[in-house]
Amino acid sequence: MKNYSYKIFFVSRFIQLLALSTVVIFSGCATPKVNVAGRFPANNQRAANLRRVTIAGFQGRGGSNFAAALETELASTKFDGKPYFTLVGGGTSYGANAILAREYGRKVNANGVYFGQINEQVKNEPRQMEMSKCARWDNFVCKQWYRVPVTCERRTIAVTVTPKLLNVATGEIVYTAHKAGQKQTTWCPGETRKSDISMIAEIQRGILHDIRMDVAPTVKILQAKVMDDTNGLDDAMSALFEKAVEQVKFGDTQSASKAWTKIHDKNPLHIPTIFNLGVCAESAGHYKKALALYKQAGNLQAHANDSSDSVNGSGNHISNWLHAATAKAHALIARPENDIATAKVRVEQLITAQSKLKVIEKERKAETDLKHRQVAAIKRHREEKAARERRAAVAVKRRQEAVAAAHKQDLITRYGHSAADAILKGKVKNGMSKEAVIASIGKPQHKIAASSSEEEWIYPSKQVIFTNGKVSYVGN
């Protein structure tokens, strides 16, 4: 019994020492992580669909300042490396009135209008505190300190914002939220307090970030941790595995993936290799492949946990205790199943986000295609209408030309070529008959018979003299 108790004590101490040494080893060599750029949709897709926007203004203390900050935030918002919003208008505040905000949106040709209310509250309260003072100095060094009570001041600034987004086309409020934040600063006599402007700016940054996440898609940088465990590999594969880990540290996941693929070909059941291939797939955006690899690693790990050797309680071999002690010590530090579960949750979120974005992009493309078809239809209708009008104008012109040609031919037949040309030009020339003159400039105001062979016709602007029925003189 005494010997058994001694062994139990030995094992317990060994576990503590091994765990402590393992903590020291692992803390000195952090496991490398891979950055994964995840694309996530906006929290409010109806708001994200309105991308040509303007700021109508915010009512309340600090409203103009917040409106300018929101405009800057939206203007700087990017997705996939491109500006997400187009800001129009600016410089005019319509406050929190939805009717006027919509009117302003129409005026500046915006799809959406942001407006709302803001409230800033400042509260001061005394604080009883203690300060250290020097009771005895010795060669510029304080040798004795004492505490004295002082009355200090605490300043609390709280900001609440109710942003709203109005769809100009429908007049509907598609987004509204309640955002709040506060900051505190405390100062004592002789100290400089933090400025209100800097505190309000800090609060605004948090609120603006929340609004940006609500109304626009974003790219989040997630971190995927690789496993650094060569247990079960021979020396050559272990060296290749560690080289791949070093490559990951320098961002070369492609080379690392090739190395782990080579290791996996010869060691298909090595869990860290399978897991790290999942990390490489995830970093490359192949989320479904990554999830399959994580699930495979998880299944193998679960099987390994179920089939692990247990300590034989009736055995007296110290090797059994050492094996159990080592297993427990490692369990205190590394739990692969936790890393695998975390990775599975992370990549499932990425898959869900990508699925939502694909649906959103498909709907947006369909909406854009519909608008293009509508624009094309309107353009085609206008072009067809213009073509019909051109054809109608050509037909009218041809009819007019035909009528004019027939009329000219009739005049030629009746009065001859020379008289017909003069009639068409509204002129009178010598040799024309009285009928031809009437056809050209109409009937005269007066007729004067000078003799049996001469007759004078008086017009408002000219006179025509006929001799023997033919024009012999034309005067003004």
Structural write-up:
The chain has 476 residues and is an alpha+beta fold. The chain folds into 3 domains: 2-38 and 222-360, Tetratricopeptide repeat domain (Serine Threonine Protein Phosphatase 5, Tetratricopeptide repeat, Alpha Horseshoe), CATH 1.25.40.10; 42-216, Rossmann fold, CATH 3.40.50.10610; 426-475, no CATH class. Helix content is 52%, strand content 25%. It has helices at 2-27, 45-48, 63-75, 98-107, 196-215, 235-249, 253-266, 271-283, 287-306, 318-333, 336-415, 417-425, 434-441, and strands spanning 33-40, 52-59, 78-79, 82-83, 86-87, 112-138, 141-167, 173-176, 179-187, 218-225, 446-449, 454-458, 463-467, 470-475. The strands form 4 sheets. Strands 2, 5, 6, 7, 8 and 9 form a 6-stranded mixed beta sheet that branches. Strands 11-12-13-14 form a 4-stranded antiparallel beta sheet, with no helix packed on it. A two-stranded antiparallel sheet has the order 1-10. 23% of the residues are buried.
Major sheet: size, sense and barrel closure?
6 strands, mixed
Provide the low-confidence segments as ranges: 1-29, 309-334
CATH-defined superfamily of the largest domain: Tetratricopeptide repeat domain
Number of domains: 3
Please report the total strand number as a whole number: 14
Please report the first level of CATH classification, the CATH class of the largest domain: Mainly Alpha
Strand composition percent: 15-25%
The helix-strand sequence is HEHEHEEEHEEEEHEHHHHHHHHEEEE
Secondary structure tally, helices: 13
CATH fold-level assignment of the largest domain: Serine Threonine Protein Phosphatase 5, Tetratricopeptide repeat
Shape: elongated
Helix content: 40-55%
Question: Whole-Å distance between the termini?
Answer: 153 Å
Structural class: alpha+beta
The whole-angstrom Rg is 47 Å
CATH architecture of the largest domain: Alpha Horseshoe
